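Chain A, query sequence.
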Amino acid sequence: MSQEMFERGLAIRKEVLGAEYVERSLDAADDFNRDFQNLVTEYCWGSGWGRSALTRRDKSLLTSSCSAR
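Chain A, predicted structure.
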C-alpha cells in the first residue's frame, strides 16, 4: 500500500463524504473488512478521485450515474 496515496485518498474521502462519516466507517472496520476499507481509500479515493483529469463535480456525476444502475 502506498501511504502517500492512502493519505491523499483519506483527505478527499473526508472532504466529499464528511470526516465524521469516514472516521465512523474506519473505526467500525473489523478483521473481515479492514483491508477493503484501506483498498477503497487508497485506490478509489486516492488514485481515482485524486487524479486531475476530471473535475470533482464530473467525478461525482459519474459515480452517481454508475450507482443508479
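The radius of gyration is 12 Å. DSSP finds four helices and no strands in the chain.
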